[in-house]
Amino acid sequence: MRVYEGLPQLPSANMQALLQAVGFSTVSQEHPVEIQQAFIQHISTFGISYGTEEEFNFRMSLFAAKDAEINEINATEENFTVGHNYMSTWTDMEYKKLLGYAGQHLEGKANEKYLEPVNADSKDWRADGAVNPVKNQA
Question: N or C: which end of the chain has fewer CB within 10 A?
Answer without folding.
Answer: C
